[in-house]
Design a protein that fits this description.
seven-stranded mixed beta sheet
Length: 255
């Protein structure tokens, strides 16, 4: 099983509009961060896309991705779902809609905001067949589990994907570590984790919390994501433990 990190940045990306790099070195290509999305791929080549980031089109082009087999959403915040229309071209050569999965609340909000995607409109076909993750079916060669994580006043869904004898956790946009998260995320081969900045934040994990989740879940490897302009790539690499990697756009690695 393989991880492809399409985007590794926070909601405004790095640099922010205005060419604001903050503490990030503009000369380091891995500091240029688009909004978060990942692809998980099994040994058979089947792909799951997690979140349709605002930058999805450019991410898919940059990584030569022309199809995925299913889509999962962590929650409905704009940076995680507003690239949904870029899935339209993936429907062209399919006889049926693309399978999509999210929590009950996220399903309701996505259907309300993007009704044409899930219902079709003006002669255009339905793009995605959306269902709640409570079913936990086997999805295109993957099994999965999930947990709702505190994200300030709302929640975000954390996912555990398993295939080919490996496990990968995607836990972005959380502000507290719960017992349910520790249960779901234990002993993963790869943990991809929210890490907004070093200072504490009311709706996101900071570096200390991200590393804590890796230790408590006994993750074999941890990859940091959703980082803002204060998180310079090279400085952070020198700061984290040996089994922790600083994520970047285009990172590809085995679980």
């Amino acid at each position: 099983m393989k991880l492809l990190m399409l985007g590794s940045g926070t909601s405004t990306g790095v640099p922010r509009i205005g060419n604001d790099w903050g503490e990030c070195d503009p000369g380091e290509p891995r500091n240029r961060r688009s909004r978060v999305s990942i692809i998980v791929q099994n040994d058979a080549g089947q792909r799951i896309l997690v979140d349709t980031s605002t930058d999805l089109r450019s991410q898919l082009l940059a990584n030569d991705i022309d199809k995925v087999d299913a889509v999962f959403w962590t929650h409905d915040h704009a940076d995680h779902c507003h690239g949904i229309d870029d899935l339209r071209v993936m429907r062209y050569d399919r006889s049926n809609p693309l399978p999509g999965f999210a929590s009950k609340v996220t399903c309701e909000r996505l259907r309300r905001r993007f009704d044409y995607v899930f219902e079709g409109q003006f002669g255009y076909p339905t793009l995605i067949s959306l269902q709640e993750v409570t079913e936990k079916p086997l999805v295109v060669g993957f099994s999965f589990d999930y947990v709702e994580m505190p994200h300030g006043p709302v929640t975000s869904t954390g996912f555990r994907f398993e295939a080919d004898g490996r496990s990968l956790i995607y836990a972005t946009d959380f502000s507290e570590i719960t017992k349910e998260m520790l249960r779901c995320f234990q002993n993963a081969d790869l943990l991809v984790v929210d890490c907004l900045r070093r200072k504490k934040h009311p709706t996101h994990a900071n570096l200390e919390m991200a590393l804590e989740l890796g230790r408590k879940t006994k993750a074999r490897k941890t990859v940091l994501t959703h980082m803002d302009k204060s998180m310079d790539y090279r400085s952070l690499c020198a700061e984290v433990p040996a089994n922790v990697l600083v994520g970047y756009d285009g990172l590809e690695m085995a679980a």
